[in-house]
Amino acid sequence: MRSHEFEKILLQKVLQHIDVGIHVIDSNGKTVFYNETMAKLEGIEREKAMNRQLLEIFPSLNENTSTLLSVIKTGESIINRTQTYLNYKGQKITTVNTTIPINRDNTILGALEIAKNVTNIQKLSEQLVDLQIELIGDNKKDIPSISNHYVFDHIIGRNEEFLKAIDIARKAKDSSSSVLIFGETGSGKELFAQSIHYDGLRKSKPFIGQNCAAFPESLLESILFGTVRGSFTGAVDRPGLFEQANGGTILLDEVNSMGMSLQAKLLRVLQEGYIRRVGGLKDIPIDVRIIATTNEEPLESVSKGTIRKDLYYRLNVVSIRVPPLRERRDDIKLLCEHFIKHYNRKLNKDVWMISKDLMQEFMKHSWQGNVRELENLIEGAMNYISNDEHVLKKEHFYGFVPSIMDKEPNYDELIHSHKPLPDIILNVEKSLIQDALDQAAYNISESARLLGIKRQTLQHKIKKYRIPL
What are the structural domains, with CATH classification, of the chain? Predict the structure, then answer.
């Protein structure tokens, strides 16, 4: 078999089984490629779609409502458009579609559409917004909330730099200025954000948090700003989180994960105090305090291009750096005592302390997962300790112990182990991946960034080395 024939077969296989739907039509609107994923998504057999006119397959569409036909007509790409519609089987689905023209010598030969199924994410986002509306309604009726509200008294620490951060946050609690909190994953950024709100003048109003990395940009825009009926296929009138947080505070976690176009829209909110729903024409005035967080130095995000410079200056009115646990080792013992007391009540235990040798190990550890890592380890150990024991020891940490103690891979030992070079390389690669995962608290995107590889590549290697997540 010739190499170009093999490449053609390989490309066909890849396109057929890739996890996004692909639909290609020619300039006359006839389907010339339709992969299995798209067939499953739209509820039609692939063979029934091939070599048929698009409007014959989907009679409910027309030149104005079909993105494929629209692109052929205009020659302009449509990027990341959200569509909610009933597929061939009558199932309601939501996709994020990118449609581009296929050109040669300034002649449009057809159009290619790539569709990503986000139906489950869309359902979750709608449930999130509806639940938020319900919770705000309950609070207005003075029904007690079951969620945890943190105030400054809940923040544990005596470290000098940490106390400075608390002092800045306390001074800012009664203003309406935007706040930018930065610190590593697990360092306690949300505790600061909630404390600013619930100890401040807005405490009787809503506090709503949203992780900006949790949803695709097109869905995140709908979640934050709301939608009007007809703004995209399947859209309904729905208020966004900004409207729901009116009078209160909105927390935008991992704001550096937000796309540039959405950051521009957020900048307008900060500058003008208005929001506009997706697809809407009406400007809606809002009074919302914005607290944003990042897991890296904000200026680093600006230099990398993940945060707009103008947005950075608008957000960074009050700047709070939450130091990582390894920079506040003098707080480790205090935090251990706090978590032991907490889990004694929760797990009905009677633990008094942590053994001296284990505490020494804790004081040497780098704590890449920060306070969250420490709490999770103590909670796990207290599930293993018996009711008649009062001191947490190494043996209570079982499988956790090797992962919490800093152990650099012995490269010298590997080199002189007389193993084949491929085996040594595999061992080193696995060790580096494990180190990156530990450092990023098992955040896949952050771990991939530290390693300088793509997220998909890292996921493949995690599966290859059977690294537990």
Answer: 3-117 (3.30.450.20), 121-323 (3.40.50.300), 327-404 (1.10.8.60), 411-464 (1.10.10.60)
